[in-house]
Amino acid sequence: MIHRRELMLAAAAAGSGSIAGLTSESLSAQSEEAPKQISKEDGFRLALGGGAAKAFAHIPILEAMDDLGVKPVEIAGTSMGSILGAFYASGMSGREIRQFAVDLFTQKTQLIQKLFLTDGRTWSSLFNVVRPAIIDPLVLFETLFPPSLAERFSDLKLPMKIIATDFYTQSQVILEEGPLLPAIAASSALPMLLTPVRIDGQVLIDGGFVNPTPFDVFPDDGVATVAVDVTGSDFAERKSGLPSGLETWIGSFSITLHSLVAAKLACTRPDVLIEPPIGRFKTMEFFKIADIVKAAEPAGETFKRGLANLLENR
Known about the structure:
NTE; lipid metabolism; Acyl_Trfase/lysoPLipase; eight-stranded mixed sheet; globular; 314 residues; hydrolase; two-stranded antiparallel ribbon; PNPLA_dom; alpha/beta
């Protein structure tokens, strides 16, 4: 276990270069060899919000935890936040997630080859305009996700909650047991693009419609909550021209997410809120992953300082 003072020193070392003989490089090496899970008394829970491509900004936060050699006692994720959170909870490091995601979206030839489904399934099992949406998320994610992804929630190395929306009851659903991939697919099922997912008789769609940044799904038991919100504006500057139909659809979804988070923050707030500086990127710019992650790197340092300040004052 790592204690509060040790964590504060680690965060200071990672942020400023060295303190008490520690350096960010040595901390990183230590965390790779033997990651520590901090105790619940001094620990924190982590909420990773949805935001499609902008959620790649979570990656520097995951890397920052590795640098400090600490892990949350629990993760909650919505949409893309559930995907990256599940990778991390399955045992991948932040750096491994960065490498996997950057390779996936920058090596376009390999991506196309994967989407041709060389395991014998047909192209129509992935794409079908007759379905309620074009793409089957279960087939897509099974094809693209790393083999190290846990099969079930019970196989995860860290407890996790995944947020989805029940389409017919128009309510939040928290998934935390059973097969993992359908839960991720449900949480990410953006209407018209990804087909809704049936789980236990419920028809589920993207969790962003009810809880884009799920910092309020944890029990109120004194454990600190750190939330990473990536629902900021899709537009770096005000424009006067009319948006295209696609831009209107995507932008409207982004507005909905951001408004929901703002309304929640007016009522309650996490102990630490991180908002990576990624406003100039658009929701669906997946192929700009390297730029998004680079732009979000200062948020990793913000996380380290915020966590140290939080534990110092508790």
